[in-house]
Amino acid sequence: MSLKPRAIHFGAGNIGRGFIAPLLSKSGYHVVFADVDKELIHTINKEKAYGVHILDISTDEGGKRVEEIIHVKGVLSTSDDILHELAHPKLKVITTAVGVPILDKIAPTIAKGIKARREAGGGTINIIACENAIGATAQLAEKVRLHLDAEDIAYADLHVGFANCSVDRIVPPFTPGEHDAESVLDVGVEEFFEWIVEGPSLKGAHPGALDHPINGMTLTGNLAAYNERKLFTLNAGHAITAYLGHLKGLHTVDESIAHPDVAAVVRGALHHESGAALCRKHKFDEKAHGEYIEKIIVRFENEAVKDDVVRVGRQPLRKLGRGDRLVGPARMCVEYDIPVHNLAKGIAAALLYRNDDDEQSVEMRNAINDKGIHKYVVELTGFEEGSDVHAHILQSYNELKFQAVEYCTITQLNT
Ligand SMILES: NC(=O)c1ccc[n+]([C@@H]2O[C@H](COP(=O)([O-])OP(=O)(O)OC[C@H]3O[C@@H](n4cnc5c(N)ncnc54)[C@H](O)[C@@H]3O)[C@@H](O)[C@H]2O)c1
Ligand SMILES: O=P(O)(O)OC[C@@H](O)[C@@H](O)[C@H](O)[C@H](O)CO
């Protein structure tokens, strides 16, 4: 039996293959991917390796650097095989990158795994949900607990660490043929990455740290600040770029941010609105935060990444959640009396996002038609009619709707 520590990663998609698994693998873990996609799992088990293409025009090799990830395994997350993996004595870490709405679906499986570990006397493990949401691991923990009995909960309290994190690396859709890739498993990623994990929640021989450290993972005791900094800056700017770009008929993030109107709204939202509020709340150094924002804009401009506005804009209702990247920073601005003209434009552009292949876009359009935009904005954001923010969102909505007609048919906009 291999002496290597094992890690199970739920979700063998972009961020799983392009970010989390490479760090685990390069830190000496044997990585087992768990996914619902049979074809993908079959290919992982057949090829056992893939390449991570670094998509940076600035890399010495002109964007051609490829990192080989080897000795990976796949297991179908809906089969009993996953339970054997979860009970494995060498298992140390479970990570996820499946999308927040899917955490519900994997929770019962993880709960069965915890029960199996208790019965087998398995060692301590740590679980880290690498999703774009504040407190994603805490949400997962809550869902897992619903499937545990009192004995299992007592065991989990001692032997299972649930650590929240902030995860940052842009991993766009990747077409192997366009990049001389050898395998359909290959992924393309930007060079930059940041994985910040709540240290105090980790369990093991040295509480507050992993028994087998992961190179590239940073531990912190103040995750809340990093979480809000990332979601309300990178993801806020990304979403605004994607929704405004989509309304202009643009297809990629680099094309959208190159449009001066889009860049002006993104800079206004990040520097003068979310940034100003974040600096007030978390006492960030204003100059350093300004540099953080500009570095993010350079990442959006990376032409080698070619990220799709449809990927970045996916699930608009999740993105319009009160604690999420658009309404979240707008609410924080209101707390500090900071006007929100640019975030309001981003929220309005999200409300105008029309994509018949995206269930949440369709649901949003139907809700706007049924309830009317005034009431719907109140329901979604919590900003009352008559408030400045509500008025700014409505004003931007009407202006953008009018401008968007040039690119979309009236039927698509439909409101
Ligand atoms: N791509 C990025 O740039 C990026 C960066 C940071 C964070 N994230 C976050 O990572 C998560 C995943 O994003 P992604 O871009 O990798 O998405 P993706 O669609 O590429 O990958 C998701 C994977 O999860 C699998 N999956 C779905 N249901 C499952 C289930 N029940 N059990 C196991 N696997 C299941 C899918 O088959 C797919 O392979 C999201 O929360 C996203 O916000 C993405
Ligand atoms: O994954 P989502 O849908 O929450 O957000 C889309 C993108 O903004 C996101 O995936 C970024 O690429 C990522 O957060 C970069 O770290």
Automatic annotation (TrEMBL):
Its EC number is 1.1.1.17. The keyword Transport does not apply. One of its GO terms (cellular component) is cytosol. GO terms for biological process: mannitol catabolic process. SUPFAM superfamilies: 6-phosphogluconate dehydrogenase C-terminal domain-like, NAD(P)-binding Rossmann-fold domains. It holds the Pfam family Mannitol_dh. Keywords: NAD, Oxidoreductase. GO terms for molecular function: mannitol-1-phosphate 5-dehydrogenase activity. The keyword Oxidoreductase applies. InterPro entries: 6-PGluconate_DH-like_C_sf, 6PGD_dom2, Mannitol_1_phos_5_DH, Mannitol_DH, Mannitol_DH_C, Mannitol_DH_CS, Mannitol_DH_N, NAD(P)-bd_dom_sf. It catalyses: D-mannitol 1-phosphate + NAD(+) = beta-D-fructose 6-phosphate + NADH + H(+). Coiled coil: none annotated. It comes from the Eukaryota. Residues 222-399 form the Mannitol dehydrogenase C-terminal domain. Residues 6-207 form the Mannitol dehydrogenase N-terminal domain. PROSITE patterns: MANNITOL_DHGENASE. Belongs to the mannitol dehydrogenase family. NCBIfam families: PRK02318.1-2 (NF002646), PRK02318.2-5 (NF002652). PANTHER family: ALTRONATE OXIDOREDUCTASE-RELATED, MANNITOL-1-PHOSPHATE 5-DEHYDROGENASE. Monomer. This is Mannitol-1-phosphate 5-dehydrogenase. It comes from Mycena maculata.
